[in-house]
Amino acid sequence: MELQTIYQNVVEGNAGEVQAGVKAALAEGVEADVILKQALIAAMEEVGKRFEEGDFFVPEMLIAARAMQGGLGLLKPHLVDSGVKAAGKVAIGTVKGDLHDIGKNLVGMMLEGAGFEVLDLGTDVDSQKFVKAVQEGANVVGMSALLTTTMSNMQTTIQALQTAGLRDNVKVVVGGAPVTDAYAKQVGADAFAPDASSAVRVVRQLLA
Amino acid sequence: METKLTSKSKTVVISPELPFVIIGERINPTRRKKLAETMARGDFSVVQEDALKQVEAGAHVLDVNAGIPGGDEPVLLRGAAQAVLEVVDVPLCFDTADPDALKAALEIYPGKALINSTTAEEHMMARVFPLAKQFNAAVIGVISDESGVPTTPEARLEVARKLVNRAGDFGIPPEDIVIDCLALTVGADHNAGRVTLDAMKLVRQELGVNLNLGASNVSFGLPDRKILNIAYLALAIGSGLTTAITDPTVPEIQTAILACDLLTGHDEYAMRWIKAFRKRSQAAA
């Protein structure tokens, strides 16, 4: 019952209620891992699905993600104590020269909402920053570009990973308005994700 | 302040004292499959169709972007510009971040073009301003710098001031800098629209330069985008916007801009408004 209420409050973006619900569930002895999967992750999957289908708009996704993050913050210490590991570590960023961050932020929130550890490198990210993130343990690099004029920097980053001898240690996913599946292949990425919720599916497949 | 752009035989003047200047945005292969495919193989027929359609719909200047994944941008931008010049006689706006592509296009351009764009980042200005000076072009200056897009109107004014001052160091006068105060989406921050409007008023008042905006970004991620875009365009014009990169083939945009021109005193005896009304009525009949 408690979990269903949390789930609903995440979908509706009621941050305060989500926190209250998570606290109550923990007090009742529900496992943090169970709350995470059945309430938070499940709710963000629903949010992603509605967004993909055009029923949900960006602000609704943002407010749901904020509610989810509030709940996740309360669960984190418990998850660490019980040894629950993140599903993987994903370093995301908008490539060098590009300041667009909405799509990248949505991807980050959805990945977090799916149980991944997200390292957000921000916008205008130099290829060496991505390299450093992989050296520090990221299993996946997610790059975003919204401009035809900056998308070639995805290739620059992939080459930098190669030069650093790290290309085989990491999966690379790319996305953004001008990016296509064919372009992803051309620059040597492992996958293309057209939007935030497919990014979660793609990352899951790559790490499976 | 007047920003003059020229083609072979036409002059377009951007000024708060004159009708609003529409820069047609459609020649851009992002998310336009057919345009991208034809352009990539050096076929500029769709580019030419777009040029004609936009000028017919009221574009005063045409933006030309030839950024195609894996494409040879200098060759494509120059080719697209030449193709456009074969069919229409309006000033062009070269939309690229590649200095070689920019140079290739400016070299064959027979007038005073607009460059889209530079930010206030030192390395960008050092690349773009010398070319603007060499080829006598005007430049759109986007108010972001090494630390990103400032969050307050006052900070955006300072970045605009830096753009104008640095352009001056390269011998480019303030009237050849058109400032873009950047409309970020209200879908991610509901105050984003207001901050940009306030920044525009400040820049207009303090620097007196012309203002440009890519006005459709404001509605990203929201339903009924067209209504938001048109309302924002009207608000922006009220805040000092003198030109915008937009799609004049969308009838509502074209009509809203004509209405703004009339309502801000730039359509004597409402002649353009009435003429456009007749044209719509005939098309509907």
Structural write-up:
The complex is a heterodimer of chains A (208) and B (285). With 208 residues, chain A is α/β, with parallel strands linked by helices. Chain A has two domains: 80 residues, Methyltransferase, Methionine Synthase (B12-binding Domains), Chain A, domain 1, CATH 1.10.1240.10; 119 residues, Cobalamin-binding domain (Rossmann fold, 3-Layer(aba) Sandwich), CATH 3.40.50.280. Chain A has nine helices and five strands, in the order ααααβαβαβαβαβα. Chain A has a five-stranded parallel β-sheet with strand order 2-1-3-4-5, sandwiched between helices. Chain A is globular, with a radius of gyration of 17 Å. The model of chain A has no long low-confidence stretch (mean pLDDT 93). Chain B is an alpha/beta fold and 285 residues long. Chain B has a single domain, classed as Dihydropteroate synthase-like (TIM Barrel). Helix content of chain B is 46%, strand content 16%. Chain B is built from ten helices and ten strands. In chain B, the strands form two sheets. Chain B has an eight-stranded parallel beta barrel with strand order 3-4-5-6-7-8-9-10, surrounded by seven helices. A two-stranded antiparallel sheet of chain B has the order 1-2. In chain B, helix 6 links the parallel strand 7 and strand 8. Chain B starts with a strand and ends with a helix. At the A-B interface, helix 4 and helix 8 of A face loops of B.
